[in-house]
Give the backbone structure.
Amino acid sequence: MPLSTWIAIGMTSLGVGVVGIWYIVMHTRPTELMQVFFLTMLAVALVGLTMVAAGVLNHRWARPNWLRKDPLRLLREGVSVALFGVLCSWLQKEGLLSLTIVLIIGGVLMLTETFFLTRGRE
């Protein structure tokens, strides 16, 4: 898929996530099920936002033909950021989040992305 398609998918995902969050916050009561839907919509919005930002940044600074060599890079980066955001949000809701945990989760996700990027150069 071309980069413009990935950016369009990211913008659509961001829009769906933001509208979903708005609807949940404004029109529902805070139940356990709505908390799950809220975190799901947060993940959808973060995936979309990351796909757009990563698409622009990778287009500017990645090696030529990066999209052909690694066609799912934008989706993988979006899911990583969404996982980080949702996991930190859930831990904050439970009262378990600390700076150490944030740094550990972020470090693990950055190391996995670094692994994928270095393995893709072969």
Q: What stands out?
A: The chain has a mean pLDDT of 93.
